[in-house]
Amino acid sequence: MKELLDKRVVFVVGKGGVGKSVISATLAMRVAKAGMRSIVAEMNGAETMAALFDHEPVGYETHELAPRVHAISVTPNRATEEYLLRMLRFRLLYELVFRNRYIEPFMNGVLGLSDLISAGKVMDLEWERVNGSHGPSGKGPHQWDLVIVDSPATGHGLSLLRSPKAIMDLTRIGPMHTNAKQIQELLADRSRTSVLLVTLAEEMPVSETLELAADLRKHVDIDIAGVVVNGVPPKLFASEEAAAQFDEVRAVGLAAGGQAAAAVRDAERLLRDRARAEEHIKRLRGELDLPFAEVPMLARRDLDAEALTSLGTHLEWLA
Ligand SMILES: Nc1ncnc2c1ncn2[C@@H]1O[C@H](COP(=O)(O)OP(=O)(O)O)[C@@H](O)[C@H]1O
Ligand SMILES: [Mg+2]
Questions:
Q1: pLDDT value at position 109?
Q2: In a 3-state reduction of DSSP, which class is residue 293?
Q3: Rounded distance from Cα 178 to ligand 1 centre (Å)
């Protein structure tokens, strides 16, 4: 698992709200700690990174949010514009095609094209060199040691990863086929690209993660690096001794009533949450033979760079 930091591209995938963006940012902070430069590419125009780092929206441009931590927000429209400008090479045609809104039915008609173009943007970032050059034949050090893709929620994340093959099947030949093939090669390259599954230790997210892992294995030729179980309720007692002491005071506290009883009930609730989470994690670990990391639920909801750094210590198995 330590190979994750040696990879070039990591797709962070999972159900909406499980913490993909938080884990992407946490990973970026962890990479920065190792002295490496990463960029988090948010898909579909999301701007969660900027919010986490208290930065204004980054848009379709690279911004440094913390030392060695960068972000870009990839919108399919801007990526398409960039792609067409490069493919068609001259503006006039672009004006004709794009401004005429001819492109929209075209895009909608060709299944997966907009996904392919977003995936193509990821490949561009992987290609980017310090000297500013792009493209497959670039020379010199890479601009980004790791490209972290904060993927759209499950369904769209899957279609993003499946888009190169879909387009290859559709086109068979031509520049778009060549392009899709290059992207497909990057995705399938175990030495460069991985998927990181993110989930919560809850019934539904665990079931969906199992489905997602099965779908990835069945439909996408890509490495799955591991599973991050996010938002795990912390252990209430550090030691068996403390747990045993709680058992002793429990009855006394409940009998005392008032605040003492309320505290006991709070503690009991936390113990139950933790026990339930452990059951879900057990199920997941039983079904998936992959490296796991457990990231705790922080009490505070407005996470910042400091909180992300502390969460990063739970990804130590990456390094
Ligand atoms: N480990 C954590 N501790 C506390 N809050 C968290 C944690 N992980 C995520 N959150 C919060 O949960 C919400 C959803 O996280 P987010 O990363 O935006 O999910 P996703 O990108 O998968 O939709 C956010 O409000 C985020 O701040
Ligand atoms: Mg998100």
A1: 58
A2: strand
A3: 38
Find out whether 170 and 162 touch, Cβ atoms under 8 Å: no
User: What pLDDT score was predicted for residue 2?
Assistant: 62
CA of 198 to the centre of ligand 1 (A): 11
Domains located in the chain, CATH noted: 2-234+288-318 (3.40.50.300)
* pLDDT reported for residue 319: 46
Q: Which amino acid is at 28?
A: A
Q: What is the pLDDT of residue 265?
A: 94
Cβ of 298 below 6 Å from ligand 1: yes
Prediction pTM value: 0.92
Q: Is 75 in the pocket of ligand 1 (CB under 6 A)?
A: no
What secondary structure letter does DSSP report for 1? -
Query: How much distance in Å is there from the Cα of 102 to the middle of ligand 2?
Result: 31
- Ligand 2 center–CA 299 separation, angstroms: 19
Q: Which two tokens stand for residue 272?
A: 């139950």
Ligand 1 mutation pick, 11, 18, 22, 303, max ligand atoms within 8 A of CB: 22
* Distances 108 to 45, 158, 170, 267 between C-alpha atoms, Å: 18, 18, 14, 53
pLDDT at residue number 158: 92
Q: Is 48 in the pocket of ligand 1 (CB under 6 A)?
A: yes
Which residues, other chains included, contact 95 with Cβ-Cβ below 8 Å and sequence gap of 6+?
A: none
Task: State residue 161's pLDDT score.
Answer: 96
Mean pLDDT by 10 residues, the chain (319 residues): 84 96 96 96 93 95 97 91 73 60 58 84 96 88 97 87 90 84 97 97 97 96 96 89 88 92 93 96 97 92 89 79
Strands (E) across 67-154 are located at 69-74, 146-150
Which ligand 1 atom is nearest residue 311's CA? 1
- Ligand 1 close to Cβ of residue 22 (< 6 A): yes
CA of residue 301 to ligand 1 center, whole Å? 8
- The ligand 1 atom at the shortest distance from the C-alpha of residue 48 is 18
